[in-house]
């Protein structure tokens, strides 16, 4: 026998030497929820270990993220009141913009402050855009608001804005709006291929969403692979700096395609349902929790992600640096 592949698996030291894919804290981004008016962090039942932060508890988490060498935090706001236009999104006193400013004050340039750029946390109907008189999501009216939202987030101090609403033309409008007022260095991380996924279930609880209907007229059909490339290339043409695939684990083929098609950094979002599934199975004693977490993350990296958004970012970074 000439080839004996097992030789390179013979010890932990050997496996470490020849490992193709590695995880580093700097590649991990921690999504965080900050709730308006909260005096204490509030647990999210379907995401054990994840909370809706108060502004104060969030500040501690930003400092810890710096300490751990994370790539960044991705902020989501949970407003106290919502309306049809999602007006809290563009208000400088709105919870997300306030949280961005808190984060920047805490971390300066030692950690990247990223913000979700979407209306769904702010609208009373829960859609990612405003509705027309027939109740349909109005693409072009929504774009105008996204432009204002981008400027509000950049003014609050976001290093990176992350449009996640899957409106056509959103990256171009956001880039133009930012440039027009001089935010030339604000990075656009585009949720380029975002699917209408059941795996966002726990996120609905995390942001107190009251979604009426579903998002299938704007998020992608899970059955479509080639369409993800079309969406991604459109975002690249429109000026995206980083492109993202979401969810991660059920879309590793899409991630590999996107990696092969573009030279930009590629991110993947390990979403709330992916988190909840592993936590729930581990709580039953059915899988080894830490190994399952590490395997899920390394698989996402192996498929092509340079950057991974994960609710385990802090925990995994702590383990990596131990
Ligand atoms: C939209 C947005 C969602 C998530 C991130 N940004 C919800 C959705 O599109 O339905 C989901 C994240 C997760 O499930 O962890 N603002």
From TrEMBL:
GO molecular function terms attached to this record: porphobilinogen synthase activity
InterPro entries referenced in this protein's UniProt entry, alphabetically: ALAD, ALAD_AS, Aldolase_TIM
Catalytic reaction annotation: 2 5-aminolevulinate = porphobilinogen + 2 H2O + H(+)
Pfam families named in the record: ALAD
Keyword terms of this UniProt record: Heme biosynthesis, Lyase, Porphyrin biosynthesis
Pathway in which this enzyme or protein is active: Porphyrin-containing compound metabolism; protoporphyrin-IX biosynthesis; coproporphyrinogen-III from 5-aminolevulinate: step 1/4
Subunit: Homooctamer.
Functional summary from the UniProt entry: Catalyzes an early step in the biosynthesis of tetrapyrroles. Binds two molecules of 5-aminolevulinate per subunit, each at a distinct site, and catalyzes their condensation to form porphobilinogen.
Protein name as annotated: Delta-aminolevulinic acid dehydratase
């Amino acid at each position: 026998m000439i080839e004996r592949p097992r030789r390179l698996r013979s010890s932990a030291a050997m496996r470490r030497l020849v490992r193709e894919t590695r995880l580093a804290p700097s590649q991990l981004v921690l999504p965080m929820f900050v709730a308006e008016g909260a005096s204490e962090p509030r647990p999210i039942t379907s995401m054990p270990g994840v909370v809706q932060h108060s502004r104060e508890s969030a500040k501690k988490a930003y400092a810890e993220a710096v300490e751990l060498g994370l790539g960044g935090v991705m902020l989501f706001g949970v407003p106290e009141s919502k309306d049809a236009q999602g007006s809290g999104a563009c208000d400088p006193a709105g919870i997300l913009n306030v949280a961005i400013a808190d984060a920047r004050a805490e971390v300066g340039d030692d950690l990247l402050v990223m913000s979700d750029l979407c209306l769904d946390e702010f609208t009373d109907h829960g859609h990612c855009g405003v509705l027309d008189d027939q109740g349909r999501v109005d693409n072009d009216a929504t774009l105008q608001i996204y432009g204002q939202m981008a400027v509000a987030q950049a003014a609050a101090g976001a290093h990176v804005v992350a449009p996640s609403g899957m409106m056509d033309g959103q990256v171009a409008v956001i880039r133009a709006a930012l440039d027009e007022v001089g935010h030339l260095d604000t990075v656009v991380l585009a949720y380029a291929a975002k699917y209408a996924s059941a795996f966002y279930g726990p996120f609905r609880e995390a942001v107190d969403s009251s979604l009426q209907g579903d998002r299938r007229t704007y998020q992608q059909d899970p059955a479509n692979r080639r369409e993800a490339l079309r969406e991604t290339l459109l975002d690249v043409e429109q000026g995206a700096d980083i492109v993202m695939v979401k969810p991660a684990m059920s879309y590793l083929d899409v991630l590999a395609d996107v990696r092969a098609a573009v030279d930009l950094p590629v991110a993947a979002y390990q979403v709330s349902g992916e988190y909840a599934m592993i936590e729930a199975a581990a709580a039953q004693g059915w899988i080894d929790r830490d190994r399952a977490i590490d395997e899920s993350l390394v698989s996402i990296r192996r498929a092509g992600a340079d950057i991974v958004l994960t609710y385990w970012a802090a925990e995994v970074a702590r383990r990596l640096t131990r």
